[in-house]
Queue: 2 jobs
Job 1
Amino acid sequence: MPVPVTFAGWGTAVPEGRVTNADLEARVDTSDAWIVERTGIRERRIASPDESTATLAVAAASDAIKRAGLAPGDIDLLIVATATPEQPIPHTGAFVGDAIGLRCGSFDLAAACAGFVYEVVVAASMLQVGYERVLVVGAETLSRITDPQDRATLPLFGDGAGAAVLTRTPSGAAGLLAWDLGCDGSASALLQIPAGGSRHPASAETVATRAHFLKMQGQEVFRRAVRAVVDSAVVTLERAGLSAPDIDWFVPHQANRRIIDAAAARVGIPPERTVVNIERYGNTSSASIPLALFEAVGDGRVRPGDTVLLSGFGAGMTWASAIIRWGVS
């Protein structure tokens, strides 16, 4: 059912530090040509030692609040989607809220690369039960969980954050038209960090076996990602009563250029209506969709009234799609 919500403000943040494919050639057995051909990535932003998931989240969130014409005290709920929390306890939202000056409720949401779409749907639901202004943030420092010795995963990931303030639309116009959320936990071993939780607590053995770094079965993840994005997007289109030609912009999770191209083609979205910035940021998990969406808003591609399909897929294996109408009021 369409929901009368809108994006009142948005913001992004990425570290200044850039690591190019040429830089990686000096670290592991890889090459610029190999990385570009298989992923489409040319560089990624990497957090400095004094940056973290929370500092990037604070920068993006502060920008979103300002762009919405609000003060921190106007926010009455904060949701932070992240796979790289500031620390196990307390939740990242506690650090972000304190830095911004919030005293409202907050919680973290863990849905990996689909996290931003998940939190938009959750925020829309909260707005229907009495909340007025919900701040959502997708923030990651994936460089902190990527094995510097693993040539398969090291080139893929980057750091960044995107945020938005969601409010109800005064006119009642629908800004969220339809959505689809899903997870197939039977495939959770395909993309995981094995150690550091209650199942395999940190120990000398887990450190020695590098079990605190991200492990990925790339080929199987690729196969499942394309199928999940396509299936989820099609379901969401059907629920909205739309078809591919009705979509002005497709903003997929920026995991791999080949996944993006294959999924867009199967859904029926042409390249000129697909937002892609993976070549400059790599895979930033929950931050990737807001970074791509708000870049397209900022440069004028996405305009008020445009119908936008968001779709993400990641560890879990988790997926989510949503169709929004940008700029409704």
Job 2
Amino acid sequence: MQNHPMKPDHGAKRRKKAKTERNNKSSGFDEVLQTDIDQLLRRNQPETEVAAESPAETPKPILPELFTEIEVTVAELSSTGDGLALSENADHVYVVPFTVPGDRVLVKVVRHFPSLSYSVTDFIKAVTPGPKRNDALIGCQYFGKCSGCQLQMMSYEDQLAHKKRIVEKAYANFSGLIPELIPAIGDTFPSPLRYGYRTKLTPHFTAPPGKSRRQKGPREPHKEVPPIGFTYKNRRLDLDIEDCPLGTDIVRKGLRSERKRVAENIGRYTKGATLLMRESTARIPKDAPDTNTESSAGEKEAGRDSGDVIRIEHDQYSEEKRCVTDPNATSVEYVDDYMFTNKAGAFFQNNNSILPGFTEYIRQQALPPHNQEDAKPLKYLLDAYSGSGLFTITLSTLFKSSLGVDVAGDSITSARENARANALPNTGFAAADASTLFKDVPYPPDQTLLVIDPPRKGCSEDFLRQLLTFGPRRVVYVSCNVHTQARDVAVMVQGDSEKKIRYEIESIRGFDFFPQTGHVEGVAILNRASISA
């Protein structure tokens, strides 16, 4: 009996290559884009033509010269956030940023990839806007040049629908599972804030012109202020960004202050640099004595923050927000009433506005229905890739005991401090080597929930083998890359025939942590099942 059927693999060579390189790929951007391009071409090529012609017999499309301007009509929006437009003969695709389906646009052709059947273009203007384009919604003066945002001209409802489609396509194209094994994708969970949500920005500037790294001797300092900001779309050049409306108010203040500081000291820089602006929050109870509370906002010391302060009044407390600029200084963040301290340069989710709803959703999904009526109810939480303890801490009250595990020692140190600060004695953290992550877990698998939140490249094959060997009863897989998530979930669904264990997908849903961009987070819930003989 076949318990985990897979789709016929018509792209076996491409996916096989992807599998061997999986641990080295951070996002799979090119592969995702190529998949969308290939599918668009197949849908618009007559079946008789596909059957009759071999690749050698297919005539090469005639492409415009580089840097010429042409008009194209956008057919669809790719999972990367770029528009895709077909050539006149539907045998080549133009990748067009900052567009929506139906846009008739003027573009400049900047790169050809004839063997891959597409060309990259720069957006110039919308000649005839499509029905879903509304340029009045654009909230940034740099949109259309900066590589940070892709979707500002779309309504938020359309953005959420597009991101649901991204998740659907990720599982359809990258899991290899037959549709019957994939549940209907849930509606994308919205962000309460669509602008002003980013608690961290990292603009940069390049080294001064002069000697290369291979040449001996120091570079001369900058003689004038270089562009400080983010990269241009489709170029290896920096765009000078004076303000980013995605940042929170204090982060935007910090950006202005840091730009001023760099400009005043530009003669000292012989190298490029990446700047840090990280929001840090102190909560001061209204009935607290009038004492100095600055240290609780994240080490107010010279050179460690921008010097900017924003004070917000609430019923029970005041919030004092600062912008930390030293990666090794401490930043403080609240999720509901839980307090988290971290090194400002360490990873922590960058959209605080969505975190209460996000963690509440995970809490609601953590335990199966009627858990307490079960002979062996879930009592234990194992949080792999725990970082500074976001899930271990916010889920801890549901469990008898919780353990966060991570390979990064600094993250474990922060997590332990956070558990103490939130008075959670049933919560522990341990640093573990990636190759033995599950070796010393003290919990019975039958009563354990596993939460995993890996980096963009997803889980390693070794980690997935360990997971199947341990065999937790329930798994919550959180991912910032739904394409690698789909790939990993498929491994769990296929299971381990020797151990007669596999997993079934209960639900999949996207979360919009980054409005105005093409990024979407995914949450998949899985339950352990048996492989019948």
